[in-house]
TrEMBL record, chain A:
UniProt-listed GO biological process terms: positive regulation of Notch signaling pathway; translation
Location of the protein in the cell: Mitochondrion
Official protein name in the record: Large ribosomal subunit protein uL4m
Protein family per UniProt: Belongs to the universal ribosomal protein uL4 family.
Organism: Drosophila mojavensis
Keyword Heme included in the entry's annotation: no
A GO CC term attached to the entry: ribosome
From TrEMBL, chain B:
Family recorded in the similarity comment: Belongs to the universal ribosomal protein uL15 family.
Large ribosomal subunit protein uL15/eL18 domain residues: 94-173
Keywords associated with the record: Ribonucleoprotein, Ribosomal protein
Stretch list, region Disordered: 19-58
Region forming the signal peptide: none
Database matches in Pfam families: Ribosomal_L27A (PF00828)
The protein's name in its UniProt record: Large ribosomal subunit protein uL15m
An annotated GO cellular component: ribosome
UniProtKB/TrEMBL annotation, chain C:
The protein's name: Large ribosomal subunit protein mL49
Record GO cellular component, one term: ribosome
Family to which this protein belongs: Belongs to the mitochondrion-specific ribosomal protein mL49 family.
Major localization class: mitochondrion
Lineage of producing organism: Eukaryota, Metazoa, Ecdysozoa, Arthropoda, Hexapoda
InterPro entries reported in the protein's UniProt record: Ribosomal_mL49 (IPR007740), SUI1 (IPR001950)
Sorted UniProt keywords: Mitochondrion, Ribonucleoprotein, Ribosomal protein
Stretches assigned to the SUI1 domain: 114-178
Length: 298, 287, 179
């Protein structure tokens, strides 16, 4: 049922339904082809990029729920399916804990926020050193300072004091769960697209605009590659567009993913993210990440 | 048929019909946020659980143990220093035989190699804090009837029953002392190798521990080996099992592997420097 | 004086030694803290060393390095500790309780109010959580001689909370069902 609903994203194609059984020849061809960038003419005859998931190391509970996603091209505005990729269900079909996503967003907002709201206490307000009137005999209430908090223009008690840091650390595995949940949500809502690489043919920003228009992405798009050095063309093309941003995979975070409507990952970035997140979910020294956060920890 | 991961799939399917999850339409779980402000007057102001008047409201409780004028209970009896010097005593956090067997069954430790502090800490499930005067592990007797592994283990403290349980299975147990610095190194050898410092000498036990570690009944590492083999026989007779002959064992090498009293790691000598990046060992040149 | 020192440094032997000392003392020192690293002493005070590539003792070093991820348990004829590998797939029961990353059954005890309230928490439940809740409640109520027991189901996070300490009971029950 779900697969049927996901027909735009997921496969209903009997030949390659079970990617694990596809021919290894095709796979090795695809692997070599993907590394070499060839011209537009040769790309048409290129074999499909079939990337099955290797479950040997981290087997999911149920393989039947593994997601499959198309790999799209970016060398032209028109959409072409270049291949198919199997995504690990622990990363891309995890329980969509929207509450954990919200906690991540709140944490990302707060940990860097320093409140500059400031009020003066009675000691800091100018004046008020002398007793305004004698203690007795005036028929007035006794007061020692005109800057007492009872006075208009006096100091403020328990007011905000700057700088107040709102730094705190979200537990490590909540951060991991935030990433897996957000990736799963993005995939489930058809907001996650996988592209071959980030090699676009021109430096023209109009190309990116047309691409987004044609493929019904965005409007705001976050493009993620594995490395932080992007090819020249895409840097020039996206530079002037405020709503299209580039990000290396190590910088991927919940806030940026949700800030952009569409998340576009390269094949390499998907593999890298899967590898890193599965490692965090299965690491041997997990207890060392679950200790209390210390400011001077490495 | 109910599909596995039903709730996950249901949720993901539901998300397809819902608007896009965005920063603007997220909110915390209902009732998950607690207001840290205490309302006053009509905004919920009442006693707030503190009761009416008195020490409950003012938090001016009597000091602990004060009995409104009586001679307090804690002063009625003469001083008995049960815990005198507790902050200076060596602590040996326990691991039970059951835990050890679980570690072996779940493939967390490799029994084809000698087991020591480093093996146990590398399993990722146990930690030692030498700064809190933890000097190593003691092996306790919980689950000793179900212990079936043949191991060569080195712990810092073990009872007689535990020693018998290990030796009944044809294993070898030894109690050995490590000074705090050595415990620190052994509790995370990889991190320590990365410092790039030569392996130090292991210190000898302090005076009050010498007796324990030279006693063959405790299988102390400073005890006479001949006496240990005699005590192994004595213990076998006491507990009524036949002592398996280690000499005939195919794993004889592993079972009898022991560290020098001044040695920290199996097979690595003090003074060597381990370079994990280049996979080299730097040794003193011997002429 | 300075010229004299330069002349010593330029001899090829000392040059080689200096290289070695640099690789020993600067490259590795980067990983430790600045404060904890010793200052470089005059070269004569360092002993002569040899650097062994692929030494036979390297297997002892490898033994001391922890595994990167939690190792998979290997199949054995018997598990004396009572731990069992997971055998159920959940196809017949309709629900599934996954193992933790340490291959343990996820049943925990939660104590509140200084141990006055004890909750047994079953985690990582997938599939028909309500059917599992019925099963577990039946097991618990049987052990309580038919007295009712309170449970709470959180379908979103896949957890069942059971009032009272039934950790051992439920863990054994789940293990006997193959989870």
């Amino acid at each position: 049922m779900l697969k049927f609903l996901n027909k735009t994203r997921q496969l209903l194609y009997p030949n390659v339904r079970n990617l694990s059984h596809t021919v290894t020849v095709c796979q090795s061809n695809a692997a070599t082809e993907s590394t070499t960038t060839t011209g537009k003419e040769t790309l048409v005859s290129k074999p499909a990029l079939i990337l099955p998931q290797n479950y040997a190391e981290h087997a999911p509970v149920s393989r039947s729920t593994a997601r499959q996603a198309w790999i799209e091209n970016v060398d032209a505005v028109t959409e072409r399916k270049v291949g198919l990729m199997e995504l690990h269900p622990d990363v891309f079909a995890a329980q969509p804990r929207v509450d954990v996503i919200q906690e991540n967003i709140e944490w990302q907002r707060k940990y860097r926020y320093v409140s500059m709201a400031h009020t003066k206490t009675r000691a800091e307000v100018r004046g008020g050193g002398r007793k305004p009137w004698p203690q007795k005999g005036m028929g007035r209430a006794r007061h020692g300072s005109i800057r007492s908090p009872l006075f208009k223009g006096g100091g403020v008690i328990h007011g905000p004091r700057s700088p107040t840091t709102h730094f705190y650390m979200l537990p490590f595995y909540k951060r991991v769960m935030g990433l897996t949940s957000t990736l799963s949500v993005k995939l489930a809502q058809d907001d996650l697209h996988i592209i071959e690489d980030v090699e676009i043919p021109t430096k023209d920003a109009q190309f990116i605009r047309d691409l987004i228009q044609e493929r019904n992405w965005g409007p705001s798009v976050l493009i993620v590659d594995k490395h932080d050095v992007f090819p020249e063309n895409i840097c020039y093309a996206t530079d002037s567009i405020g709503y299209v941003n580039l990000m290396p995979a190590y910088g991927l975070n919940v806030y940026s993913m949700l800030k952009h409507d569409t998340l576009v990952l390269t094949v390499e970035a998907v593999k890298h993210l899967e590898e890193r997140l599965l490692y965090q979910l299965h690491r041997n020294d997990a207890a060392s990440k679950q200790t209390k956060f210390k400011l001077d920890q490495v | 048929m109910a599909h596995l991961r039903e709730s996950t799939d249901k949720a993901l399917k539901l998300l397809r019909t819902l608007p896009r999850v965005q920063i603007g339409n997220l909110r915390p779980n209902p009732n998950s946020k607690q207001n840290d402000k205490r309302g006053r007057a009509q905004h919920g102001g009442d006693k707030h659980g503190a009761g009416n008047k008195g020490s409950g409201q003012r938090q001016n409780f009597m000091r602990l143990g004060y009995e409104t004028g009586n001679q307090p209970f804690y002063l009625r009896f003469p001083y008995e220093p049960y815990y005198k010097g507790h902050h200076m005593r060596r602590e040996y956090p326990p691991i039970s035989m059951l835990q050890l067997q679980v570690l072996i069954d779940t493939n967390r430790i490799d029994i084809s190699q000698p087991i020591d502090i480093a093996t146990l800490c590398n399993s990722g499930l146990m930690t030692l804090k030498p700064a809190e005067l933890q000097y190593g592990f003691q092996l306790t007797d919980e689950g000793l009837d179900n212990f079936k592994a043949k191991i060569n283990i080195e712990v810092q403290h073990a009872s007689e029953a535990v020693i018998a349980a290990v030796e009944r299975n044809g294993g070898v147990i030894r109690t050995a002392y490590y000074d705090p610095r050595s415990v620190h190194i052994l509790s995370n050898p990889k991190k320590w190798f990365e410092k790039g410092v030569p392996i130090p000498l292991r210190m000898l036990p302090p005076q009050d521990a010498i007796e324990y570690y030279t006693d063959a009944r405790n299988r102390g590492y400073l005890a006479n080996p001949e006496e240990i083999s005699k005590e192994r026989l004595v213990l076998a007779q006491k507990y009524g099992y036949e002592l398996p002959r280690i000499e005939d064992d195919p794993n004889y090498e592993m079972l009898t592997a022991a560290k020098d009293p001044r040695q920290l790691f199996h097979g690595l000598e003090p003074g060597w420097l381990i370079n994990l990046v280049d996979k080299t060992i730097v040794k003193l040149k011997t002429t | 004086m300075a010229a004299n020192a330069k002349a010593i440094v330029n001899t090829p032997l000392l040059q080689g030694l200096k290289q070695l000392v640099r690789s020993l003392h600067t490259d590795c020192a980067r990983l430790s803290s600045f404060r904890s690293s010793r200052e470089v002493q005059p070269l004569e005070e360092y002993p002569e060393v040899e650097v062994l590539h692929n030494p036979p003792e390297w297997k002892y070093v490898e033994r001391l390095l922890p595994p990167r991820t939690v190792p998979q348990p290997v199949a054995k004829p018997a598990y004396p500790s009572g731990w069992k590998p997971q055998t159920a797939t959940g196809q017949e029961s309709g629900y599934f309780v996954a193992r933790t990353k340490n291959h343990m059954v996820p049943v925990y005890l939660n104590t509140r109010f200084r141990g006055q309230r004890r909750l047994t928490i079953v985690r990582l439940i997938q599939g028909d959580i309500w059917a599992l809740e019925r099963d577990l409640r039946q097991v618990v109520e049987q052990s309580r001689n038919g007295k009712l027991c309170a449970t709470r189901v959180n379908e979103l996070s896949g957890q069942i909370h059971i009032h009272g300490d039934y950790v051992d009971l439920l863990r054994e029950h789940l293990k006997s069902k193959g989870f």
